Amino acid sequence: QVQLAESGGGLVQAGDSLRLSCAASGWKFSRSAIGWFRQAPGKEREIVAAIGRNGGNTYYVDSVKGRFTISRDNTKKMVDLQMNSLKLEDTAVYYCAADENAILTSLPIRQSDYDYWGQGTQVTVSS
User: What confidence tens digit (pLDDT) does each residue in 24-33 have?
Assistant: First the structure.
């Protein structure tokens, strides 16, 4: 059974850092591109970052460039999202998702590209 489990969310102050982790099990993780999405209250879910199968290529939405870093460890089946200089507008539920059998250069950024989703972890940034 395919499972994705996010962890690391919490309540922080603006300017702080937080590291989210996504643990995967149940399928060939190294064949999947992984994305982090977020959904703020009253807003659509949006892509935050994505990482290719071998970690060699990454994508970031403009609003997090220079502040967030996505990384993966295929031996541990983990993908992390390091979030620095957090802002109030980063408050959201963060989800990791997997695009199974992605090609090596694939960096999917649409929700419909992804096959599996985690349950999400809440990140709240206060002033």
Answer: 998 788 899 9
